[in-house]
Amino acid sequence: MKKYKNHIRAANMLLQALHGLKHERLRKIQQRLEDFSFKCSEVTKNSRIFQRAVDRCCNQQAKRKPQRFGENVNAFDINWHRSKTPSTPTI
Question: For residue 58, which phi and psi values (nearest 5 degrees)?
Fold first, then answer.
């Protein structure tokens, strides 16, 4: 009986470790999605600001906006590729 008790304890410890790994993996995925969502909103906001500046023919503002817009698009692209990379398989 004692032999089975130790096997059950070891199985329970293994199950808890696997659950912890799964939880950590899901937390990392959630954080990546939140970062990606934030970058999407920044790109959208800056593209609207740029469009308004161009529509109003505000040359001075329009000249500054493409740089910020380009920086956000680059960050968006990096986050997009990072979110597409498959996670390493875990046991």
Answer: -90, 90
